[in-house]
Every structure is written in structure tokens, then in C-alpha cells.
């Protein structure tokens, strides 16, 4: 019977308690656990059999004893109160307000586990999102409804980049702007303060819903925080028809909490000690992004994860790469050379880019310019490796020209200010500017009419003609 309290626990193992009561209990059901003083702690059912039920406690187990504790099964899943008053509010990882303004005025509650989206109801993401960052807009384009993670490392400026995307992201050819759901899991106070201060200074805080589970919060709270954040995003997107940008940092902390709980529950570990269901657990979060028919709203995800030891083959980035539609990889070497944002040219990828660029969406030459920049920068990497062996003096003139292109690409195209917002036209013009260093017969990936339309005016401005460029033709 619902609402009945049971006295006594079989075992207490860290944040997991075991009770012998399992009749009429549901998986992921919310449970209230009381200690001998009557203090109430919430938890959720994480495992069960015919004879026992395992409950995760959200918080400390201090004060709990096997004999004097009481358990009450509440008969409902964990829910988040939602309503128009969400925007501008700050919640903890369990969806409880921590900004001093109390609960939002709404009687509507939603299951934080979400409802599965019928694949037939999904619409294919095609709308270009302009972030104002050349390395993303030009070469790894973000599309509305896409999930595009940032793969970073300790000490790299992923937080600055995420804040810049939040400030500048907009949909071209539309007057609609984004509302932002920001979720921090296991981050230090200064990181959370950086984002809150940035949102406040730039005036976007009124359009942001913040969920904070800081480093000193119980690790189990980190497992619930992204579910609460995505539930708020689904309400705003599919019921209020808003465009929602969800930024989640740091997914590595989420996965560490998952490993910790899995170990406590005695589950058989998989790669590097993470549970075997790490892939499906991450997919349950990432797949809550997208667009569905019947709603003009959308959810675009930018999860941030710090790769342990900068290892992109680590299970967390490895599995995230399978689930998401690409990745933005930050490069430590570029950071040390003073390049911001230090987006690594070759490992970064946007799988939906091809469907959101071109005439009518960005500009007709976008695909060709992007492809040529990738190809040329790939050759720069090979020539730099060769130069480190034989010396730059021994390189051919053509190879030296590619090295010049590499320097200009990093200093002119990639490098931009933290508050510099570039239009896609400006980004593509800069792409043509750095490509003008190369001989024309090396631009094999660009149509001739685009070369005549965009490259020749640049050469004329610099006093060069097609004849004066090595390999050029009139």
C-alpha cells in the first residue's frame, strides 16, 4: 500500500541502503528514508528482486541505522515542477530552488526520466545555427536539434568557448533566439560562478535555467541533475515551442559518479572500471535532443567533457562520439601557442554540417571552402612533421607556401576574440583570404566559378593577379 512506512534496513552501503520490502515497488520510484530523529532524505529505487529493494540516497547516510530507520515508498517517479516561471531561476541538481525565491508557481510536474521520442515523429535537423565562431561555423557547423559535444582537457578554455556560444548563438533568417538550459555537474564553485557572472553581465540570465550540482554536493545528485535539466528543456521546447540550447558540463564528472555507484552496488565493471551500461546511460541523455513534428521548438545539446589525460580513446569520449553527431576537439598545443579558440582542425567533425550549409542557408561557396581548408590544413600537418626531421630549409617552395598557409590559417581564421561575433559571410571571406596564399592549381576542391567570384577580388586588392600567383592561370 502506498504511503505506508516500513521500519528497519537490511544493510547500509555508502549511499545505497537495502530493505527487505519489495512488494508493489517500482523501478526508479521515489523513496523517503527517515533516521531516528525523523530527518527526511529522498532516494530512488535502483535495483530490486523478490526479496529486497536497493535505494540510492540523495545525500549523506550520516545518522542512519539499520534498526531505527524508516522507509516510505512514495509511489511516483522523481518529478520536476515546470512552468513559465522556469526562466531566470537557479536550481540544485534535484530540481530544488537555491536562489532564494521559493518554488515556481505551477501545479504541472514532469517525470525527470523523460518520455521516449517516437523515431517517426522526429524531423531531420537542417537549420544552421550561427555561433559567431569561425572554427565552428566555417568547418564544424552546428545545426538546430544537433548534439555536438566539446572534447576538452584540464586547463583548456572549454568554459570560455561554451559561454561564448551561449551569448552569440542565433538562427539565421529568423527572428527567434535561444533560451538556455545550463547544467553543471561536479564542477568547482569558481566555474559555476564564471558562468553565472557571464550570463548576468551579458544580459542573458533572464533567458537561462540553471541547474547546479557542485563538487561538494553528493555524487548521486550528479546523476539526477542532467535529467532535471533535460526535462526543463523538453517542457520549454515541446510545450512552449522555444528553441532551447542545453549546455552540460562536465560529463566526465557524471560518468565518474555512475562508476562510483556501480562499484558500490557490486556490479561487474567494464572498461576502466565503468559499468557496462555506460553507453546506454549516456544515450538516454544525449538522445533527448532534436526536433519533433507538431512542435516548432527544438533542443540542441552541447555537452562538455574533459578527456582524462587528453586521451580521445578513453571510454567517455569514445562512447560519446558514437552517440552524438560529431565533436569539437580542443587542442593543447594550439592553446600553448596563444590560439583561441583552440579548435583542432582535423579531429573535429560535424556530421550534420552537409545538410545545413550552402545556398539559401549559409552561402553557396561554404561547402567548397570548408573542404579545401580541411585538405590544405591536413597537408600542413604532414609538412610540419617532415620539417621537424629534415629542417625547414630543405623543403620545396611549394611546401614552404603551405607552411605559410598554416600560420595564416591559425592566426587569421581560427584566432578571434572571446567577445568577437563573426557572421558566416565574414568567416568565409577569411577562409578565402588564407586560401589566397596557395597556388590556384592546388585549389582542387573549389569550383572555378567560385574562385573567379571570391578569390580574384582578393588578389586584385593585394596587387596580385592570377598570373603572379604560382600555378595561377589568367
Automatic annotation (TrEMBL):
Gene Ontology annotations of biological process type: proton motive force-driven plasma membrane ATP synthesis
CDD domains: ATP-synt_V_A-type_beta_C, ATP-synt_V_A-type_beta_N, V_A-ATPase_B
Domain ATP synthase A/B type C-terminal: 355-454
Gene Ontology MF annotations: ATP binding; proton-transporting ATP synthase activity, rotational mechanism
All copies of domain ATPase F1/V1/A1 complex alpha/beta subunit N-terminal, residue ranges: 10-75
Sorted UniProt keywords: ATP synthesis, Hydrogen ion transport, Ion transport, Transport
Location of the ATPase F1/V1/A1 complex alpha/beta subunit nucleotide-binding domain: 132-350
Cross-referenced Pfam families: ATP-synt_ab, ATP-synt_ab_N, ATP-synt_VA_C
InterPro entries: ATP-synt_VA_C, ATPase_F1/V1/A1_a/bsu_N, ATPase_F1/V1/A1_a/bsu_nucl-bd, P-loop_NTPase, V-ATPase_su_B/beta
Similarity remark: Belongs to the ATPase alpha/beta chains family.
Role, per record: Produces ATP from ADP in the presence of a proton gradient across the membrane. The V-type beta chain is a regulatory subunit.
UniProt name for this protein: V-type ATP synthase beta chain
Gene: atpB
Amino acid at each position: 500500500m502506498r504511503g505506508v512506512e516500513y521500519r528497519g534496513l537490511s544493510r547500509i552501503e555508502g549511499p545505497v541502503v537495502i530493505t527487505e520490502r519489495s512488494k508493489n515497488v517500482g523501478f526508479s520510484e521515489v523513496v523517503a528514508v527517515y533516521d531516528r530523529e525523523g530527518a527526511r532524505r529522498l532516494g530512488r529505487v535502483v535495483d530490486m528482486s523478490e526479496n529486497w529493494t536497493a535505494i540510492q540516497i540523495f545525500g549523506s547516510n550520516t545518522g542512519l541505522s539499520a534498526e531505527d530507520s524508516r522507509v516510505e515508498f512514495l509511489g511516483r517517479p522523481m518529478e520536476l515542477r515546470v512552468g513559465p516561471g522556469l526562466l531566470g531561476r537557479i536550481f540544485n541538481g534535484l530540481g530544488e530552488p537555491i536562489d532564494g525565491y521559493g518554488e515556481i508557481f505551477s501545479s504541472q510536474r514532469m517525470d525527470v526520466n523523460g518520455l521516449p521520442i517516437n523515431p517517426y515523429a522526429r524531423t531531420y535537423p537542417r537549420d544552421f545555427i550561427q555561433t559567431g565562431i569561425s572554427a565552428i561555423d566555417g568547418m564544424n557547423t552546428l545545426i538546430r536539434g544537433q548534439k555536438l559535444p566539446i572534447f576538452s582537457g584540464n586547463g583548456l578554455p572549454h568554459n570560455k568557448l561554451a559561454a561564448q556560444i551561449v551569448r552569440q548563438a542565433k538562427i539565421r533568417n529568423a527572428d527567434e533566439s535561444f533560451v538556455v538550459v545550463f547544467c553543471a555537474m561536479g564542477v568547482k564553485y569558481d566555474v559555476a560562478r564564471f558562468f553565472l557572472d557571464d550570463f548576468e553581465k551579458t544580459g542573458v540570465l533572464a533567458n537561462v535555467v540553471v541547474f547546479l550540482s557542485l563538487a561538494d554536493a553528493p555524487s548521486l545528485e550528479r546523476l539526477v541533475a542532467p535529467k532535471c535539466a533535460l526535462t526543463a528543456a523538453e517542457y520549454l521546447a515541446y510545450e512552449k515551442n522555444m528553441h532551447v540550447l542545453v549546455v552540460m558540463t562536465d560529463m566526465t564528472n557524471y560518468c565518474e559518479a555512475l562508476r562510483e555507484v556501480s562499484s558500490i552496488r557490486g556490479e561487474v565493471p567494464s572498461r576502466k572500471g565503468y559499468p557496462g551500461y555506460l553507453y546506454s546511460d549516456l544515450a538516454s541523455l544525449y538522445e533527448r535532443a532534436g526536433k519533433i513534428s507538431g512542435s516548432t521548438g527544438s533542443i540542441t545539446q552541447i555537452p562538455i567533457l574533459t578527456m582524462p589525460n587528453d586521451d580521445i580513446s578513453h571510454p567517455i569520449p569514445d562512447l560519446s562520439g558514437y552517440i552524438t553527431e560529431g565533436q569539437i576537439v580542443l587542442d593543447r598545443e594550439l592553446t600553448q601557442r596563444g590560439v583561441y579558440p583552440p579548435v583542432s582542425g582535423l579531429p573535429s567533425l560535424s556530421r550534420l554540417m552537409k545538410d545545413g550549409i550552402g545556398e539559401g542557408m549559409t552561402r553557396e561557396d561554404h561547402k567548397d571552402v570548408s573542404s579545401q581548408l580541411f585538405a590544405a590544413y591536413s597537408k600542413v600537418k604532414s609538412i610540419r612533421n617532415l620539417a621537424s626531421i629534415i629542417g625547414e630549409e630543405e623543403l620545396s617552395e611549394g611546401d614552404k607556401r603551405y607552411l605559410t598557409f598554416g600560420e595564416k590559417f591559425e592566426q587569421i581564421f581560427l584566432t578571434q576574440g572571446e567577445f568577437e561575433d563573426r557572421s558566416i559571410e565574414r568567416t568565409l571571406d577569411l577562409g578565402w583570404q588564407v586560401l589566397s596564399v596557395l597556388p590556384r592549381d592546388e585549389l582542387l576542391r573549389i569550383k572555378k566559378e567560385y574562385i573567379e567570384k571570391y578569390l580574384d577580388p582578393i588578389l586584385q586588392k593585394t596587387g596580385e593577379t592570377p598570373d603572379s600567383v604560382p600555378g595561377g592561370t589568367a
